[in-house]
Amino acid sequence: MELIGIDTQRAYERIWEKITTLALPPGSPINDQQLAAGIDMALTPVQEALKLLVHDELVCFSARHGLYVTEVDPPALKQLSEMRLALEGLAARLAAQRATADDLTVLESLRGQQAALDSADPHALFDLDHHFHQAVAQAAHNTYLASVLERFFGLSRRLWYMILPEPGFLFAAVEEHLALLEAIKTGDADRAEQLMRAHVQDFYNNVKTILPAGD
């Protein structure tokens, strides 16, 4: 994002927010002129932002249907879960091996924030889970891995918003961070990877039981 214009970046962020929070639901058509007017942006940066979102697989283009928000379907869900299981597990393993004192301070702080959260506030729980996963990726000290995981975040965020009516599941998922943090702190790479993979797998298992697309 550093090499694009500031207006394009702003347009990207506004459209990304609409897509990942389901304000633009999966499968919905995109009219670039109407979208530009709706987010109070000029047409050119919106068009450039849409190209970036196509690259991120949040927007699709076909000669027949034009631009539309990418669907959430079973094959895509399965592929996304496979990638996140492998990469999030690797991030946790590397974090257990490489985390610095500063990394652990950040993770401890996030864990403390969780304890103060209202379990009935799914939006806050979602944000905390994302920040925790980001912190684990940063503690892995592999910039390419962190970058790829952040890209997958946009795809996963839509799934979170689809299951927000199930706050009990969300709170349980964030609770799993405690055991993962202990594994990272003690340098137990095998356990950290195992716990992260189980954490991610539980998320997708719940998605499949809640979403029609996951049947």
Structure description:
With 215 residues, the chain is mainly alpha-helical. Helices cover 71% and strands 4% of the residues. It folds into 2 domains: 64 residues, Orthogonal Bundle (Arc Repressor Mutant, subunit A), CATH 1.10.10.10; 141 residues, Four Helix Bundle (Hemerythrin (Met), subunit A), CATH 1.20.120.530. Strand 1 and strand 2 form a beta hairpin. Helix 1 packs across helix 3 and helix 2 crosses helix 3. The chain is globular, with a radius of gyration of 18 Å.
Summarize the structure.
The protein has two domains: 6-69, Arc Repressor Mutant, subunit A (Orthogonal Bundle); 74-214, Four Helix Bundle (Hemerythrin (Met), subunit A) (Up-down Bundle), CATH 1.20.120.530. The chain has ten helices and two strands. The chain has helices at 6-20, 32-38, 43-55, 74-98, 101-115, 122-139, 143-162, 167-175, 177-185, 189-210; strands at residues 59-62, 66-69.
List the helices and strands and how they pair.
Layout: H1 6-20, H2 32-38, H3 43-55, E1 59-62, E2 66-69, H4 74-98, H5 101-115, H6 122-139, H7 143-162, H8 167-175, H9 177-185, H10 189-210
Antiparallel strand pairs: 1-2
Helix pairs in contact: 1-3, 2-3, 4-6, 4-7, 4-9, 4-10, 5-6, 5-9, 6-7, 6-8, 9-10
